[in-house]
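User: Last request for today: this protein with zinc ion, please.
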Amino acid sequence: MSEPPRRSGTRAVPRILQVFLLCASFVAVHFSTAAPAQAYHHLCGSFYGVSGNDPISYKYSKITNTYYNAFNGAQGRWDTTSAPGYFRYEKNNGDPEVEVRDEGHAWDDWARTSWQGCTFGYWSYDEVYIVFNTSTMRGLSAREKKLVAEHELGHAYGLDHEYYTCANPGPAVMRQGTGKFSCGSDGPWYDDVKGVKAKY
Ligand SMILES: [Zn+2]
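Assistant: Here's the final one, the structure of the complex with zinc ion:
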């Protein structure tokens, strides 16, 4: 991938620049004083032709047991929800919709989901890339790693970050940082699923 990621993953401490970019993208939402109709936000893209129980293919291009467990648990959790589509492992697919790997990086994100562009509301080439940063995620528990993976899959579905607390309007894996870790037993939660359903 010659292009840098378009969107950072879960962050413990957002950089000012990225906060600015997010605000610039969603000025109307972030600076409104009106009560939000919902918490979720959408990214530009989504998977093409996914509805009902259609498969969304994924493959690991490089993965260790720890992050395999995190991702595998996360895709399984998403599949238990009523969000459209289900994640299907396709070992021999040369061009899966989700390509997953783990790597040590100097950047301070826990993980990143990236894409090559958006065309008419769909991911270009119907493809996203998820990278887990083994350098920054090392200290997270297995459950926390799984929640980070659920967050990245939320991006893959086309969800952007949301900024509310566990209590108002409720937990969401799309919340950034450590706050979501104490929100309850497991995600994805109501707002996440609602956001995906609204997208598809
Ligand atoms: Zn994120």
